């Protein structure tokens, strides 16, 4: 006797957006300069907008004082069809209460379906405060955004196009997709370096809306007397993964002595005219071979250089998540079965003691990687 199959539940196609439409990004500035993460989430907002079938409904929010026209132009050339500018003396110095109140006011006025922040130090404090004030959810520290379907069988609901916010979970071992299409705006923060900005196009045009918001006296009770900008480095020099053409990364297997060789290789590459930086796996950082500022992966930085040279890196999923968008990957490892080779464009099976001195020698002779 054949088993009777359980009938599939009938799901109702629902859409709770109401008046909420479009995507808005908060584009943070530091000392009057736009941070790269603002352009990255702006690029991702454009890709999401296309999938929503609402191409062009992408806005950027700028808050500060004496905001330059150049910054507004940069946002438009990177895909903002609308730039909302709040330029008042009260916003010259960052104050979380003042900024969050202004953003809440703009959200209530413009009603974006999705609102995105960069997961910077400021963004990680500002976004949850805004979400709490609006009584909506927040997906933090995302590495990917997408638009897709969603079925909620217990509620017998089906959503056609909703935001998918993807972030590391379970001690960075897996990726979780967070969906919440019942309240708006849907909010998320994006890890710096995880997403791609659009190529600059000076033919792009956009509208500029200059807004004035009221600032409550109670929000100005805290006064900033002095700003001291620190560094996560011992020598005061930050690691600039954003503009690096080449990133040379070492794994735990090469030891402290191996990192000394990689430091020399990076130095020679820079002297030879190819902007390079030094990276490291989490295990190498935990072992004390190199500072945390160099760490690449789900618990470190996300990078996308033209060439990624992985030396003694095994290829753990947590590390791959931080470098998988590299244009080309060169793997150097003595273990020919290391999983990193499955993700590399070029591979050298050799001890680092043999391979790196040869690379240093070639670069000193004037060799440049064809990138």
What's the short story on this structure?
This protein is α/β, with parallel strands linked by helices. It contains 8 helices and 18 strands. It is globular, with a radius of gyration of 23 Å.
In terms of topology, how is this protein built?
Blueprint: E1 12-13, E2 23-26, E3 29-30, E4 33-34, H1 36-52, E5 58-64, H2 69-77, E6 82-87, H3 96-110, E7 114-118, H4 121-134, E8 138-142, E9 144-152, E10 157-169, E11 174-178, E12 186-190, E13 207-211, E14 246-250, H5 255-271, E15 276-280, H6 282-286, E16 307-311, H7 317-323, E17 328-333, E18 346-349, H8 352-364
End-to-end distance, in Å? 66 Å
Order of helices and strands: EEEEHEHEHEHEEEEEEEHEHEHEEH
Average the pLDDT over all residues and give the rounded result. 91
* CATH H-tier superfamily of the largest domain: HUPs
- The main sheet orders its strands as 8-12-7-2-5-6-13
CATH level 1 name of the largest domain: Alpha Beta
């Amino acid at each position: 006797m054949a088993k009777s199959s359980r009938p599939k539940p009938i799901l109702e196609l629902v859409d709770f957006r109401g008046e909420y439409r479009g995507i808005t990004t908060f584009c943070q500035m530091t000392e009057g300069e736009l941070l790269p993460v603002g352009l990255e989430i702006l690029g991702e907002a454009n890709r999401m907008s296309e999938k929503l079938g609402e191409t062009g409904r992408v806005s950027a929010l700028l808050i500060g004082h004496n905001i330059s026209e150049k910054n507004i132009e940069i946002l438009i050339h990177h895909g903002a069809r609308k730039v909302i500018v709040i330029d008042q003396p009260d916003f010259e110095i960052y104050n979380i209460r003042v900024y969050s109140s202004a953003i809440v006011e703009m959200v209530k006025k413009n009603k974006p379906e999705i609102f995105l922040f960069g997961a910077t130090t400021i963004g990680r404090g500002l976004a949850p405060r805004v979400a709490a004030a609006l009584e909506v959810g927040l997906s933090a520290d995302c590495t990917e955004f997408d638009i897709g379907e969603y079925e909620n069988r217990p509620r017998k609901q089906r959503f056609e196009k909703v935001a998918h916010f993807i972030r590391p979970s379970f001690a960075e071992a897996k990726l979780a997709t967070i969906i919440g299409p019942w309240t708006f705006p849907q909010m998320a923060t994006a890890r710096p370096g995880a997403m791609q900005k659009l190529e600059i196009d000076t033919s792009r045009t956009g509208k500029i809306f200059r807004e004035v918001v009221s600032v409550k006296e109670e929000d100005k009770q805290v006064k900033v007397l002095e700003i001291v900008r620190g560094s996560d480095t011992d020598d005061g020099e930050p690691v600039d993964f954003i503009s690096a053409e080449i990133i040379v990364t070492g794994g735990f297997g090469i030891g402290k002595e191996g990192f000394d060789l990689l430091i020399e290789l990076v130095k020679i590459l820079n002297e030879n005219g190819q902007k390079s930086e030094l990276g490291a796996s989490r295990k190498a950082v935990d072992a004390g071979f190199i500072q945390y500022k160099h760490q690449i992966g789900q618990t470190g930085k996300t990078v996308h250089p033209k060439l990624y040279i992985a030396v003694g890196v095994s290829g753990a999923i947590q590390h791959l998540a931080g470098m998988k968008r590299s244009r080309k990957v060169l793997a150097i490892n003595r273990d020919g079965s290391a999983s990193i080779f499955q993700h590399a464009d070029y591979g050298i099976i050799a001890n680092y003691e043999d391979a790196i001195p040869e690379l240093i020698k070639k670069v000193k002779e004037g060799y440049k990687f064809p990138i």
